[in-house]
Every structure is written in C-alpha cells, then in structure tokens.
Recover the amino acids of this structure.
C-alpha cells in the first residue's frame, strides 16, 4: 500500500516550516548582520552628548 | 459569583478565596480540577512545560487543614497557579525553554515560588516560554523547546512572548494566575495578546533569586492574572527584599485594596497619535473607546511625550552585552547552536563582540534618561498608551515584520509620542500594568499604564477603576 506521504515529500514539507527556515538560514551572514547592527547601535549612542560626571546606571554596594 | 464548572475556571482570586473560606470548595478539589485541565489543554497550546498536579495535591491537604483551623494566610491560599519555566523548583527540571538546558535541575527553589507556596498557593505546573526568555532577540514564535505559544483566542495566532505559557494558561482558564518575567515586554506583550491583565513590577521589588538571568539590570518577575486586583494580591505575596538577589531594592509592597485616591486628581499623560494614528486601523476604535472610558471616569488628561533618547540602541547594547556575558559558556562551547531560532543564535554570538566602552556608554546614557523621565512625571502621574499597536500576529509570521497598517511615517525604530514606552519604561525600571480594552476581529487588545517607581498601588487603583467600568477582562475565548 502506498504511504499517504513519501519521505521526500515529508522532508520538503518540513523544510517549509518556520523553524526549519530559521535553522537553514545562512548563520555566518546573520551573525555578521547582527554584528553590524550592534555597530550601528554604538554609532547612535555616540550621538548623545554625555557630561563627564555621568556615572553608569549600575549600583555597586560595598 | 461563579456557578458552573466552566465559570470556576475563569474565577478571580477573590472569588475563589471566598469559596474556599466558606468551604464551598476545597484546595484539593481546586488543585485536582485545574491540574487536570492544565494537563489536558496545556499541550494543545504548547503551554505546558511540566505538570505538577500530584505535588500540588499533597500540599493541598495541608492548605485545607489550615483553612479548617481558620489559619488564613491571605488571598492566594489554596489558589492553583503556574510558573514560567525559568523559575527553579528543587528537584524538578527547569528548562529555560531551551534545548541545551532541557535536563537541568537546581538544588534550590526560586524565592518567588517559596513565597507563594508559603502563602498557601498551589503550583500545578511549570509553563512554556520562549527559549532563554527571548535572549537578545528572536524571529519566530517557534523559538521554544515547547513549540510556538498558541493563542487561546485563535490557535493560528501567537500567544506573545516570552512568557507565552503563562499568558495562555490564564487566558484559557488552566491556572488562576501565573508568574512570568520581563526584560523588555515579556509580561506586557503576552498579556495583551491573550486578553489578560499583567503587572510588571518596579525593578528590584521582586526577588529574582532562582530565576534564569538574561539581563541583570533589566530582569523583573511579575504576575499575569484575571484582574488588576488579582495582580495586587499576587504582588503582595511575592514582593520584598532578598539578600540572595543583588538587584533587590529591599522595598516591600502591601496591596492596599482600600487605596482611595480621587480619580480626578490622578493625571494621565498620553499622546493622541498613539491612539489615532499609530495603531493598526482595526484596533483604533477599541483604543479610542478605552481613552473615552478613562476620560469619563474623571482622570484629567495631559499631552506628553517621551524624551528624545536612542531607546533601541540603548536597550539592545545593554541587553546584548549582559546576555552575552551570562551565556558566554553556552556560546563558546557551541551549545548555542542547539537553540531553535537562528536569529537568536546569531544575536548571542554577535553580542560577544559588543565593546565594554559601548556598554558603559549605554549605561551612562541610561542614567541621563532616568533623570529625564523624572521630569516627565512632574506633569503627570501615569503614562498611558496601547500595550501593543495591534493584535497577535499569525504564528508563522516573522516577528520582525512591521504590523499591517502601521503608519508609514512612523518607523518602529523612532516612534513619536509614547511609542517606545515598553523599552523606555524597562530601561527606567518603571512598573506597568496591561489591561484588556477590546477586540479587533475577535482578538484581544490592551492598554498599558506606567507609573513612577513603587507606584504599583496607584496603577492597580486606576486599573480597578477601568475594569469596574468595562468587562473586557472578564471575556473568555469562545471555544472555552
């Protein structure tokens, strides 16, 4: 009896799922793109005029 | 007062507490009924990470004994709840929604779970979540060990994240309330998409000891529930100082159910464009009606806007740098490649290269921004905006796609008015309350109220007034 769906068809369907699409993305490109995004964020932060006395928003307690 | 069984599953904490005290129902019966329902329906929505009904039933015996002896421990006593699976429970798996951690266990129970169980609440299950609470970013709803969170209002739609299972469980009547966490939007977004009430507490008010860390300076734990009042009951039980959490402020929170500030003295700051122009077209009538309801209640309205800061770059740099430091062993070992979402994998890998000087710059700008926010609150007491500009997106749609109908002149990176309120209020550590306010095409919409640090009683007071005048928070998905 012929199966309702062949293994090849099943693989093709799986490849269409969002998860598979995410996993088969070109990872090195995506890492580099994200790295560039962080560089752009840094450039945006550079535009803010920052008084020298401004301390970071972290609290250290002795 | 609810009558039939279906109503029981959608009762508030106050209603169930009243029935428990009158011995109309026992804690054991509640744990059994909700536990069975969570185990039966939770998987249908990809909401359940770990059932704990048997454990809850054992504890329920003690709770019933206490109630028989009139040892009342507060409103959450005997109430079944669920917890996002980033909170540790001694001896049980805590997966953080991520394959690399699917078998991990911890020797201690998270402080918030200890506190709730100490108040007699019954933990009936750990709830699914987006892997690593979303990490720096993720592209698909499927970014979870448990599969995409499906929305009880329409299972072709996303539940929202990263507290996906927490919101679904409350919306579908699988638990009376749930705990979630928010770094930037992870309580408010799923609360809005699932039509429930969510409270993000002030940073430092609730201990994070035993919770997965994503960003030390942004992470908060808070309730997702059926009403603003329920959020008050839960926050009362979980808030307070904890020496085991270095970010703990030491503040305590007492829910004041008689808080009686006249509404006509509580100034609401808003931007008209957030209601008229920025939302998806189908959502605008509900947001306009919510605005009208609040105006009819007597709140004075003042137009305001957020100060001009690079919110996206600030949040992205801080969250990315802290997450990369926390998950450095996972990233360098290659274990990160086991995550489900390629965008999240790339985000974590790339975040290792964020320079310390950029992180510190973002944290210094954050200090300037905090000062600027204090000025915003000199003109108003609460900020109001839509929680999200539209309804839950289709479950297979990339999450970085702009919403349909979004105003073309308002790119998401630089919104006007209060459009950046979620990242901005998280950066400032401010509390927020998300309230259901209507529907678009059968899917829930919500507004958010944001206040000054430790103003939770004020937000809940305003939220209760809104929920007294509307019934959106009492609506339930049609199939349930």
């Amino acid at each position: 009896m012929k199966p309702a769906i062949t293994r090849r068809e099943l693989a093709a369907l799986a490849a269409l799922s969002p998860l598979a699409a995410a996993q088969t993305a070109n990872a090195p490109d995506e890492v580099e793109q994200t790295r560039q995004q962080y560089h752009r964020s840094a450039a945006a932060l550079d535009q803010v005029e920052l008084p020298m006395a401004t301390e970071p928003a972290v609290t250290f307690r002795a | 007062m609810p009558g039939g069984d279906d109503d029981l599953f959608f009762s508030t904490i106050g209603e169930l507490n009243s029935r428990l005290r009158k011995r109309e129902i026992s804690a054991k019966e509640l744990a059994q009924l909700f536990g069975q329902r969570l185990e039966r329906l939770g998987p249908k929505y990809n909401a359940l990470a770990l059932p704990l009904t048997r454990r809850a039933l054992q504890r329920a015996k003690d709770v019933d004994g206490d109630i028989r002896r009139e040892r009342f421990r507060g409103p959450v006593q005997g109430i079944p709840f669920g917890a996002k699976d980033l909170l540790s429970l001694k001896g049980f798996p805590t997966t953080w929604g991520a394959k690399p951690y699917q078998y991990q266990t911890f020797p201690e129970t998270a402080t918030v779970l200890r506190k709730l169980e100490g108040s007699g609440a019954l933990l009936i299950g750990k709830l699914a979540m987006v892997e690593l609470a979303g990490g720096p970013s993720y592209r698909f709803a499927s970014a979870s060990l448990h599969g995409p969170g499906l929305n009880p209002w329409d299972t072709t739609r996303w539940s929202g994240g990263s507290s996906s299972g927490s919101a679904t469980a409350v919306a579908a009547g699988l638990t009376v309330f749930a705990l979630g966490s928010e770094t930037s939007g992870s309580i408010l977004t799923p609360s809005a998409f699932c039509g429930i009430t969510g409270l993000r507490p002030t940073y430092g008010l609730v201990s994070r000891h035993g919770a997965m860390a994503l960003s030390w300076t942004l992470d908060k734990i808070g309730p997702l529930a059926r009403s603003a009042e329920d959020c008050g009951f839960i926050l009362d039980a979980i808030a307070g100082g904890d020496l085991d959490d270095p970010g703990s402020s030491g503040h305590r929170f007492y829910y004041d159910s008689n808080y009686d500030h006249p509404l006509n003295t509580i100034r609401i700051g808003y931007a008209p464009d957030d209601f008229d122009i920025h939302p998806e077209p189908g959502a605008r009538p509900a947001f306009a009606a919510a605005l009208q309801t609040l105006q009819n209640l007597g709140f004075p309205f003042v137009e305001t806007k957020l100060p001009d800061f690079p919110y996206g770059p600030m949040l992205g740099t801080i969250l990315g740098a802290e997450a990369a430091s926390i998950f450095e062993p996972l990233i360098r070992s290659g274990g990160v490649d086991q995550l489900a979402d390629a965008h999240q994998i790339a985000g974590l890998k790339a975040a290792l290269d964020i320079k310390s000087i950029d992180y510190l710059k973002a944290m210094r700008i954050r200090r300037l921004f905090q000062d600027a926010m204090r000025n915003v609150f000199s003109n108003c007491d609460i900020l109001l905006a839509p929680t999200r500009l539209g309804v839950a997106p289709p479950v297979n749609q990339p999450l970085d796609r702009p919403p349909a109908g979004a105003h073309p002149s308002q790119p998401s990176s630089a919104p006007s008015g209060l459009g950046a309120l979620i990242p901005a209020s998280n950066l400032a550590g401010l509390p927020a309350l998300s309230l259901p306010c209507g529907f678009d095409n059968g899917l829930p919409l919500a507004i958010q109220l944001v206040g000054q640090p430790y103003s939770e009683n004020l937000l809940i007071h305003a939220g209760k007034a809104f929920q007294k005048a509307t019934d959106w928070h009492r609506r339930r998905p049609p199939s349930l």
The first helix of chain B runs from residue 5 to 8. Residues 17 and 199 of chain B are 21 Å apart (CA to CA). Chain B has 16 helices and 13 strands. The two ends of chain B are 18 Å apart (CA to CA).
